[in-house]
């Protein structure tokens, strides 16, 4: 008596793609993160890089949108919020930015920190639940010598360029650690989102060179 043939079992792998849950998925905007600690020169580099690119690029600051969402002192909120409150705020800000990018049809630059320092340790600025709301194309990581960053922070405070915010003074070693951790975290963002990472070292007195490097990176998206 012939033995019945065993049927073949077919298995099908299901790939799970990270899909932005916001309106950006349907838009034509290109979202760029420009990351670095306070005093690294993000604003100066971006301002100079965008000369001649009027009408092609918009710029927002993650912290400014955070201020609109929390409706209070964002530095105080950052220090005192619970983990869940902080995560909820991050999601809301990410959704608002994604909506702005999706409707503009331009490059939208978001300036922010790769990581933030809290008493409990370093907190990622763009964790999974934030990147899930966005479709980041390019991550630009701006760094500088810790001594230059400390000097710029002191200069900004004296010149009243801190926008009325209270910034905690931190030692050089903390600035160095913030940059080291921030660099590693930025590449983790890239691994998760698929965004390209561009590193720019903003040396003292070399602003034009830094701005030119950023401009070329942005033009590659047009």
Using brief descriptors, characterize the structure shown:
Rossmann fold, two-stranded antiparallel sheet, 8 helices
Question: Which helices and strands occur, and which strands form pairs?
Answer:
Elements: E1 30-35, H1 42-49, E2 57-61, H2 62-70, H3 74-80, H4 83-104, E3 107-112, E4 115-118, E5 121-124, H5 128-131, E6 136-143, H6 146-159, H7 172-193, E7 196-201, H8 207-219
Helix pairs in contact: 1-8, 2-4, 6-7
Walkthrough of the structure:
The protein has helices at residues 42-49, 62-70, 74-80, 83-104, 128-131, 146-159, 172-193, 207-219; strands at residues 30-35, 57-61, 107-112, 115-118, 121-124, 136-143, 196-201. The chain is of the alpha/beta class. The protein has one domain (23-219): Rossmann fold. The strands form two sheets. Strands 2-3-1-6-7 form a five-stranded parallel β-sheet, sandwiched between helices. A hairpin with a 2-residue loop joins strand 4 (115-118) and strand 5 (121-124). Helix 1 (42-49) crosses helix 8 (207-219) and helix 6 crosses helix 7 (172-193). The longest helix has 22 residues, at 83-104. The protein is globular, with a radius of gyration of 21 Å.
């Amino acid at each position: 008596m012939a033995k019945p043939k065993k049927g073949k079992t077919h298995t099908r792998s299901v790939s799970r793609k990270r899909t932005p849950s916001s309106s950006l998925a349907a838009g034509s905007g290109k979202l760029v993160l420009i990351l670095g600690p306070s005093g690294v020169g993000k604003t100066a580099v971006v301002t100079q890089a965008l000369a001649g690119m009027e009408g092609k690029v918009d710029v927002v600051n993650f912290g400014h949108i955070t201020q609109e969402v929390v409706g209070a002192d964002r530095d105080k909120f950052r220090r005192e919020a619970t983990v869940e409150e902080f995560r909820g705020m991050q999601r809301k800000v990410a959704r608002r930015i994604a909506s702005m990018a999706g409707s503009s049809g331009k490059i939208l630059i978001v300036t922010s920190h790769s990581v933030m320092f809290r008493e409990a340790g370093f907190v990622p600025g763009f964790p999974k639940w934030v990147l899930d709301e966005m479709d980041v194309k390019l991550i630009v990581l701006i760094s500088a010598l810790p001594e230059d960053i400390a000097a710029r922070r002191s200069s900004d405070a004296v010149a009243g360029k801190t926008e009325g915010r209270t910034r905690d003074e931190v030692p050089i070693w903390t600035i160095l650690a913030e940059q080291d951790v921030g660099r590693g975290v930025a590449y983790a963002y890239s691994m998760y989102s698929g965004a390209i990472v561009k590193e720019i070292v903003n040396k003292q007195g070399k602003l034009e060179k830094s701005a030119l490097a950023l401009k070329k990176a942005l033009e590659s998206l047009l």
